[in-house]
Design goal:
By secondary structure, this protein is an alpha/beta fold. It has a domain of about 170 residues: Rossmann fold, CATH 3.40.50.300. The protein has nine helices and nine strands. It has a six-stranded mixed β-sheet, with helices on both faces. Strands 2-1-4 form a three-stranded antiparallel β-sheet. Helix 4 packs across helix 5. The two termini are about 20 Å apart. About 40% of the residues are buried.
């Protein structure tokens, strides 16, 4: 797959509530084209809800979501938006239909968007995530957790989006497999000029992959900072410091590709 023209994303005044409970309160941030941006916080902080609101899976009570750097601004949840913005979910066991082969899982988004060169794209997508064409006609239960997440990544990338939303993409995997998938994602971002927005509760994972990050607590933004500042403990809020202390073995390392 060829490199994309990068697009960024701007979220302004985002507010999401469910039956009166405010899950995200007036959150704003901007991700530059080609940047990798992280959102961190404890469980229930609203970070995954932000991603779901971006792609139209959670209702926005107020606020705007728009692409940056392109000529068009399709509405979140629209077909045109999903062509440019795709999501990789946390659970590789739950995000793949158990009764569909890998071939069908990868062909479905192409059919929905009317893309005809399915054969070529499926083979190329499998190759890009480090799996051969021998995986095409396997079912999810015949794959390991890491292989399933690679298939989920291939499915997200097969439409050649410019923005990838990553919702805890390695938290359900063993530690050794986590590193492999993170390095794969970083390699794909560089080669395909992708913009990443990644949610995680693990500061080490976010700083491995992201250049900047937003810290959330109870639906609100605590602070925005560079990953290098986090690594050097240049943080302004006590909550961010408590997250650092809770993240055992936290340190920033360069990705090995």
């Amino acid at each position: 797959m060829s490199a994309n023209h990068a697009l960024g994303l701007e979220v302004s005044g985002l507010r999401v509530s469910f039956d009166g409970f405010v899950a995200v309160a007036d959150t704003s941030f901007r991700v530059a084209p080609g940047e990798s941006f992280g959102i961190v916080g404890e469980s229930g902080s609203g970070k995954s809800t932000v991603l779901r609101a971006i792609c139209g899976l959670a209702p926005r009570e107020s606020g705007t979501v728009q692409l940056v750097g392109g000529d068009e601004n399709p509405a979140p949840g629209s077909k045109a938006f999903r062509r440019r913005v795709q999501m990789v979910f946390q659970d590789p066991y739950g995000s793949l239909h158990p009764r569909q082969t890998v071939d069908r899982l990868l062909a479905e988004p192409l059919a929905i968007h009317g893309i005809r060169d399915a054969e070529t794209r499926i083979e190329r997508a499998l190759d890009e995530v480090g799996l051969g064409t021998g995986f095409r006609f396997r079912y999810p239960h015949q794959l390991s957790g890491g292989q399933r997440q690679r298939i989920a990544i291939a499915r997200a990338l097969i439409l050649e989006p410019q923005v990838l939303l990553l919702d805890e993409p390695t938290s359900a995997l063993d530690a050794s497999v986590q590193a492999e998938v993170l390095n794969l994602l970083e390699d794909l971002r560089r080669r395909r000029n992708l913009t990443f927005i990644m949610v995680s509760h693990d500061l080490a994972v976010v700083t491995h992959l992201c250049e900047r990050l937003m810290v959330m607590q109870r639906g609100q933004t605590v602070e925005l900072l560079a990953s290098s500042d986090l690594a050097a403990r240049r943080v302004a809020d006590p909550y961010t410091l408590s997250l650092m202390q809770a993240s055992s073995g936290f340190q920033r390392k360069e990705a090995v590709v």
